[in-house]
């Protein structure tokens, strides 16, 4: 299914529909077909599309990519060499290669109230039927529609009532391909009433030359009083490009704590994070830390949809931009007319560490209720010379001083991480990339 | 230990230091006094290596090395410590982590291994008691939300921890009430030793009631115009600076 033409032309014009897939007879085929027509109608975005103004996606699609989504295999030996390891992290693991769960390589919790399986094995699960591609915010997203139509497989997690695990689940996404490939994983997480989970996701490519373009969708349903800690660690290597959609529905009294950590070196990372608050008394904490080097382009689009009264959302995204990197932040908060007593806060702070780095940030607040507390803020700055001098005057070299200051800048975010091993991992990464950029 | 010869410096093209000569030996306590804008703080900034100052003439030799060739961090590693007039608040950097990093960077420079965690804690406790620094502030972010007195005490605590050869105290007494002043001065006095030198920059004689100097220098218009012993400080307290300014201008007109 490759083409000599650019992939952009290929999927704009000659794309075959979902009925051609070998698993075309499954229960969600009608939904896939709907999504496919939606994708056809939406078309691929350009810089004239408001949502893609600062991310020229065509530039990243001009190579040719295979849509075959090969299984891809890795051995247990190879798994040891991938750099997704978080030292000291005591967790269960779910290893996915090109979106497919590898039971033999994983360390899943014993069967109980929590089901972890391939999405394809859950084809007849009522939850999948109920929720697949239903999230309202996915409807206008062309890449999400393309994913729904043509995804290969993904993870299905269902946590029963009041279920919980004794340690975090680390989901390791590995992408490996011999030729340029457009890989589309799709995941669904359902936490039933009172369930609690802690999930760490990390992504890594194992390609030396071929480019992996990953267009991933994760749908999350938090039923009443469920709580999810969700850490997403993005540290793929250079020849990978990522579009992530994470769309969450929160019912009454649920709590969602999401963290996006975008680190070097994927060329493109576009995060579309959206949360629909459909029940009252929810808590939503969205934290983001992006640290970009080289020519990296990191785009965070977030959307918090306050549909009902008495919900709290709090969003803090911080960026450290080095070298020639570009950052984009668009944070939308929509407070509907009924959503009285909403508290919604948003903040985006950026530290530019190079003359050539840049950031485009735009808050978008739409507030239709009158009894609410909402605020937003944006800052961009460079190092405080006075702080730097203070540290240096104590014998701390420029490199160590800057590392301390970047860690200090990121502290508001890293301090919210509840897993010490992950905190250590992040501060070590910050040290590595900051000193790398200084020594360049 | 420190020899300053004919030091000229400017900031943003404005001449601030106009030929400073000063010799400081081990064990000595030097006080630098002078009216506002005379160049006292600029002298400390130039010695510590603040980058917006340009030295246009003269030299500074510290322990046989040309100080002006060194980066701010290497000056500190060679044994110069500047207690800031306005210590910087750095949210997110803990006091302890900051001190440990500083200590280890200095040790690495001298070819020593990083300090053991246990040894570091012991040292911290000892010095914190020595200068009466509140232990509760140790784990807090560096100077964040500290009162004026706590910040100055933290400077003296850092001084105790890093154990420099030459400590420059830039208006450490400013903004302190009399009790805080006594505590800070007592801390400094405990750190005095035969192989350490101090340069204390102050506006008022008050501090010198507690820290008794061996020499008092008066800085005016970028030059040292008078040097004496502690009696000179008392005289300045009584008569102010105007008589000195007149003396300088008379000399110039002659």
What is the assembly state of the chains in this entry?
Answer: heterodimer
The number of helical runs of chain B is: 8
Task: Report helical residue fraction of chain A.
Answer: 10-25%
- Report the mean per-residue pLDDT of chain B as an integer: 92
Q: Could you describe the largest sheet of chain B, including whether it forms a barrel?
A: 6 strands, mixed
Number of domains of chain B: 1
Helix content of chain B: 25-40%
Radius of gyration of chain B: 18 Å
Q: What coarse outline of chain A follows from CA principal-axis ratios?
A: globular
Contiguous low-pLDDT stretches of chain A (5 residues minimum) are: none
Distance between the termini of chain A: 41 Å
Most extensive interface between two protein chains, with residue counts: A-B, 24 and 30 residues
How would you describe this protein?
The complex is a heterodimer of chains A (440) and B (254). With 440 residues, chain A is of the alpha/beta class. Chain A folds into 2 domains: 273 residues, no CATH class; 56 residues, no CATH class. Chain A has 9 helices and 20 strands. In chain A, the strands form 2 sheets. Chain A has a 10-stranded mixed β-sheet with strand order 2-1-5-8-10-12-14-16-18-20, covered by helices on one side. In chain A, strands 3, 4, 6, 7, 9, 11, 13, 15, 17 and 19 form a 10-stranded mixed β-sheet that branches. The radius of gyration of chain A is 21 Å and the shape is globular. Chain B has 254 residues and is α/β, with parallel strands linked by helices. Chain B has a single domain, classed as P-loop containing nucleotide triphosphate hydrolases (Rossmann fold, 3-Layer(aba) Sandwich), CATH 3.40.50. Chain B is 38% helix and 28% strand. A 6-stranded mixed β-sheet of chain B has the order 6-9-10-3-11-12, with helices on both faces. In chain B, helix 2 crosses helix 3. The radius of gyration of chain B is 18 Å and the shape is globular. Chain B starts with a strand and ends with a helix. The chains are: A alpha/beta (440), B alpha/beta (254). Chains A and B meet through helix 7 and helix 8 of A and helix 2, strand 7 and helix 3 of B.
